[in-house]
Amino acid sequence: MAGEGEKKPVLEMVQADGADDGCVTFVMHDEDHTLGNSLRYMIMKNPEVEFCGYTITHPSESKINFRIQTRGGIPAVEPLRSGLNDLHDVCQHVLNTFQVQPGAVFCCNVVLQMNITSYLWEKKVNYASI
Amino acid sequence: MAAPMSNVEEIRSRVILGEFGVKNVHTTDFPGNYPGFDDTWDMKRFQKNFRIDVVHLDENSMEFDMVGIDAAIANAFRRILLSEVPTMAIEKVFIYNNTSIVQDEVLAHRLGLIPIKADPRLFEFKNTGDESAEEEASEIDTIQLQLKIKCSRNPRASKDSSDPRELYLNHMVYSKHIEWVPIGNQADVFADSCIRPVHDDILIAQLRPGQELDITMHCVKGIGKDHAKFSPVATASYRLLPEITLLEPVEGEKAERLKRCFSRGVIDLEEVRGRKVAKVVNSRLDTCSREVLRHNDLKNCVKLGRVRDHFIFTVESTGIMLPDVLVTEAIKVLMAKCQTFLNEMNSVDME
Q: Which residues contact A67 (CB under 8 A, 6 or more apart)?
């Protein structure tokens, strides 16, 4: 399964014995309602999906069980993938809309480039520049 | 008066405040729920309907309307603002000397909560994984601060004075006494944006003559989920836009009473043929109290609701970053989460 081995797993797939690919529980590590609920909404908007829901297994475990059941035997990874893509695109649109607001400073890049050498700019890009 | 809405349309788009409870709380516009509606996700439609209006923006706080998005996603932004946008905060406190009355651990906790003005986007998260690198503070992940202060008697104080402010020197330790000690090339890189506490006047401890503090601190990058000191906001919240509809004309004394049931500025009285007639002028100001529903003759004249997809966001920064920067960072964090899982799925497929 996903991410097994030396690294800590990010995403795992759990299926009952004999279940088809359309009924899968994904275990998402280090996630909570933030991604769980917004992703559930996007996936529920997919007409191929019969059921989508998530639970937080226990307050002291930082993971969610994310369940997807599809109609007509489509593999459950498909709606998951398109849901993640849709949510990403929604965020991109929200970000674009927010940044063209007349009141809002055209933030991040302007501030960053003002006094930072290119050396730093190359090294510190992970979170800031998606 | 607004054109009446069909019953289904109302269930889909409004939260109704009734006398004994709130109706239509959940989002229900999913495919298959409503015959005759196509509720499949449609990016074009979303882009057409979505808008953001900035109502207020200053260096510490902002208010904006986010319209045409579901609560699930708006709530994700709010949650990320509170607990997943990174900032720099004091994580390690090395106490070389503390003869003040404040215990070491209490002092360390107080120091941790002081907001530090430093752009977290220019720093890396410190690796907690390998123990060997644990103690090493490097220029890319740590800010070093120093607090060195000693209290003494004021030689110029008048003899009969009893005011501590006059008797002692340095008896109040404020956040302004914290000094930044650049590591490596930090002095050059952050020359323009001097790293320091956001506020100069946070009282850390009080001293008496002879007492002193000698402390070195390490700030690291972290998120609010780990500790509230890393949270970049004082508050981040949203409310739904209230909507008040008058179902029938309300006149005279009833109109006066109706006006008093709502927040100031929501209902206005107009003079029509010598009679005062109530009119909704700005339902946004309402607090959504249900006072009007306690009046038996008024409760059937009005409909109280909230627009399900109109979020009035209020973001109050701690001063480390501008509030609009915080919102863009929050959106990017959610995008990063999606990307993490997409990458994970793609890498598994390739194996």
A: A24, A25, A26, A51, A52, A53, A54
Residue with the two structure tokens 């509030």:
B323
Distance (Å) from the C-alpha of residue A90 to the closest C-alpha of chain B? Answer: 8
Residue A20 lies inside a defined structural domain of this protein: yes
Distance CA B193, CA B199 (A): 15
Predicted complex ipTM: 0.90
Residues in chain A closer than 8 A to B46 (CB atoms): 90, 93
Mean pLDDT score, B79-108:
97
Amino acid residing at A14: V
Phi, psi of B177 (to 5 degrees): -80, -10
Residue at A123 is within a domain: no
CATH entry 3.90.1300.10 includes domain B87-230: no
Best CA proximity match to B199, nearest among B90, B323, B320, B58: B320
Q: State how far the Cα of B263 lies from the Cα of B261, in Å rounded to an integer.
A: 7
Cβ atoms of B145 and B219 within 8 Å: the answer is: yes
Domain that holds residue A106: 11-117
Report the residue of A66, A101, A117 to disrupt the B interface, i.e. the one with the largest count of B CBs within 10 Å: A101
Q: With an 8 Å Cβ cutoff, is B76 touching chain A?
A: yes
pTM of the predicted model as reported, rounded to 2 decimal places: 0.89
Number of Cβ atoms within 10 Å of the Cβ of A3 = 15
At B41-88, the pLDDT tens digits run: 999 999 999 999 999 999 999 999 999 999 999 999 999 999 999 999
Minimal CA–CA distance to B323: which of A105, A114, A77?
A105
pLDDT tens track for B139-182 = 999 999 999 999 999 999 998 999 999 999 999 999 999 999 99
In a domain, A122, yes or no: no
- What crossing angle do the helices spanning B323-350 and A107-115 adopt, rounded to 10°? 90
